[in-house]
Write a structure and sequence with these properties.
By secondary structure, this protein is mostly beta strands. It is built from three helices and 36 strands. The strands form nine sheets. Strands 1-2-3-4 form a four-stranded antiparallel β-sheet, with no helix packed on it.
Length: 523
């Protein structure tokens, strides 16, 4: 009897897990072209759309569940090419750039840089490699292979070749606005340098080299300067891993020609002023109006700030008790969009909505209010739309377009959701709060079976991390969206499921994320 019941419920489980999952949203610097990836039950492909109709179009044909993820998705500035990486496990805790081989093939797929015309056509493997960046004219792709920087034509018309060879492992490649130079980070173990490559005849220019960790190079719009982050290098006496220590960082500006730099801003030497550890880390941008934007936890929440490019007092752009993540700068560099757990509803602390803010004013505005959830926002090149992912507690995540003129929202790719997906049978989790043993308020989500009366069997869901926040709906992580679907299935089987946002998680401020006596990551 038990076997028959379990077998009869298998179609429901398969239906709940059948949703496609969108990620890697990106836009073109011009016009209204967008791209994203869809994971359709293991089949991962690139999709594109273009305004004003934004009709989704499948661009690649990887029609088998091969376990090869797609990352680093971008559209060339001229809108002609879509470039991406296929392979690896870039969400893992270590070795994320190594090949994965779930099929145990004797010749596993190598992590590769690929391109495909935006208008459709052949998908080309340009080279083994990772971290591709397309040149401003769209003709070349610089990428990392074996720790060194390589280059290849975007159309794959000739073989890839190394740009230069240097000590260290290269990364964080950044083309100058005119494409004449390439900035990069050279990691040397206990310190790192920022370098600028121009051509085969010119020597590499090292930017203000020292024994610090110099990272996150960002070009000024005129290409004459670089902003970057400087962090203390490794060294000093041995200390306990349980000790709470400030991790210092500062923002500097360098003349690209001479490499000389000056300090623009220094983080407060407090625990809250340490290097931010939420999505995107520093989130450094050189914005319009000669402002440099960054993220800091210094006031107790992961907030956006900006400073003049000449240095000066930091302006808090996003005041309030909420966090900013998934931050992107608009193509005209005038404003930022990001996901935040804020809004008029008190329950928004356990949701995500798209918010915009100017680079020089504290004027954050929620663009997608309501009981749904939205994340991964990017602005189209024409500045008329925000492209994001939208979900509700019952409807699975789908790409969406928000028109900035009237904030109307259009959900894309509804036809991609299988008919077996039981949206109407899913429950709306209820926010619950309770006190911990030391009196702290803890948030959770309670999944209750439809029509349940009296006592029911219960399950406490323990998420991984710990720096996570489960939400009142589908999650922006593919891993945790799968967990959300599992909790929905358990509720359909009569279980009450409690998902707890444990201390050391994000979403409730620094003191919740990094509490006293937490040890090393909670150990």
């Amino acid at each position: 009897c038990t076997i028959l019941v379990a077998f009869s419920q298998r179609p429901l489980l398969d239906g709940i897990k059948s949703y496609p999952f969108p990620a890697d949203l990106t836009s073109c610097a011009q016009g209204a072209k967008v791209a994203w990836t869809f994971n359709e039950q293991g089949r991962r492909n690139v999709y594109v759309a273009e305004g004003p109709d934004f009709k989704p179009r499948k661009l690649t044909a990887f029609d088998d569940d091969e376990g090869q993820e797609i990352t680093s998705l971008s559209i060339s500035n001229n809108g002609e090419w879509v470039v991406f990486v296929r392979g690896g496990d870039h969400g893992s805790n270590w070795d994320d750039g190594l090949p994965v081989n779930p099929a145990a093939s004797p010749t596993p797929f190598k992590v590769s840089v690929m391109s495909v015309p935006f208008g459709g056509g052949k998908t080309s493997k340009l080279s083994e490699g990772d971290e591709p960046v397309v040149s401003p004219d769209g003709k070349r792709v610089a990428f990392v292979k074996g720790g060194q920087v390589w280059s290849v034509p975007t159309d794959g018309s000739s073989e890839s070749k190394p740009l230069f060879t240097s000590r260290g492992n290269m990364g964080d490649l950044q083309w100058s606005p005119d494409g004449s130079s390439l900035a990069f980070v050279s990691a040397r173990g206990d310190h790192s340098f920022i370098g600028i490559y121009t051509n085969e005849q010119a020597a590499i220019r090292w930017v203000s080299p020292s024994f610090h960790f110099d990272v996150s190079p960002r070009w000024s719009p005129d290409g004459r300067s670089l902003a970057f982050v400087r962090q203390d290098g490794n060294g000093g006496g041995v200390d306990s891993v349980l000790a709470r220590r400030h991790t210092h960082w500062s923002i500097r500006s360098a003349d690209a020609a001479s490499g000389k730099s000056v300090e623009l801003w220094s983080a407060p030497r407090t625990l809250r002023g340490s290097v931010p550890t939420t999505h995107g880390g520093y989130n450094l941008h050189w914005a319009a109006r000669n402002r440099i934007v960054f993220l800091s936890y210094q006031d107790g929440w992961p907030h956006l700030y900006s400073i003049p490019a000449q240095g000066g007092e930091a302006l808090l752009l996003t005041p309030g008790n909420f966090m900013a993540e998934h931050i992107t700068l608009s193509p005209d560099k005038q404003f930022l969009v990001f996901a935040a757990n804020t809004g008029k509803d008190a329950l928004d602390i356990d949701r995500r909505h798209v918010v915009s803010v100017s680079v020089d004013k504290a004027n954050p505005a929620v663009l997608t209010p309501g009981t749904g959830l939205e994340w991964f926002p990017v602005v189209t090149g024409d500045g008329q739309f925000v492209f994001c992912v939208s979900a509700t507690p019952q409807r699975c995540p789908l790409p969406a377009v928000v028109q900035l003129k009237d904030l109307s929202v259009r959900i894309l790719a509804k036809e991609m959701v299988p008919a077996t997906f039981p949206e109407s049978r899913l429950v709306v989790p209820r926010q619950v709060t309770f006190k911990s043993s030391d009196g702290l308020t803890i948030h959770g989500q309670l999944f209750e079976p439809t029509g349940a009366n009296g006592k029911r069997p219960a399950i406490v869901y323990i998420h991984g991390g710990p720096p996570r926040q489960m939400l009142l709906g589908w999650h922006y992580s593919d891993y945790y969206s799968n967990a959300y679907a599992t909790n929905q299935y358990l509720a359909s089987q009569g279980f009450v499921v409690l998902s707890v946002n444990y201390r050391l998680g994000i979403g409730y401020g620094f003191d919740f994320h990094r509490p006293t006596h937490a040890g090393a990551a909670g150990a």
